[in-house]
Amino acid sequence: MSALVIGLGNPGPEYEATRHNVGQMVVDELAGRGSAALSVNKKTRTRATTVRIGGEAVTLAVPMSYMNLSGGPVSSMAKYLSVAPTDVIVVHDELDIPFGTVKLKRGGGSGGHNGLKDITKALGTPDYIRVRVGIGRPPGRMEAAAFVLKPFSAAERKELPFLLSDGADAVEAILEGGLEAAQMRFHTRG
Predict the structure, then answer these.
(1) In CATH, what number is assigned to the domain containing residue 9?
(2) Nearest residue to 11 (alpha-carbon basis) of 44, 50, 46, 42
(3) Which residues form the domain of 7?
(4) pTM score, two decimals?
(5) Tell me: the pLDDT tens digits for 52-62?
(6) Among residues 20, 92, 113, 187, which one is catalytic?
């Protein structure tokens, strides 16, 4: 099975360390594990590389568009690689999961996440795999849109390497043993 792993985020240094870019951070972690670096693929408007996970070649990619316009680059990369939408794994930030938690699922709605909404529209199906990296809810009355574009707090930054490692482990578990086995492993953590 050929697979495509997409890390969502926004381009540019001003967004690099924000909660919304945690998907890109997980893909960077996976690239680092494979001693690979992402490079620009102009055809698909992504930064991408290929690594081996579980003996298979896997393409890691990050759209070079803003989050809300992720669908075009994701769809272009899937077509370019002849990867079925059901073999696309999207790693993204998730407000509805506590910080430090990783949850996995196939399909479903966008939950107000405009990047997922655009990908679903571009792929023509919601049935891709999602690696949902918990960033928690905004404090007080802060708007969700403002919260996701803020950097992680000092306390969160201390825990962030563990969260990124868990996200990368989850992607590897999906690729090596399938979604259900990975869900059993990541959803039963206490």
Answers:
(1) 3.40.50.1470
(2) 46
(3) 3-187
(4) 0.96
(5) 998 899 999 99
(6) 20
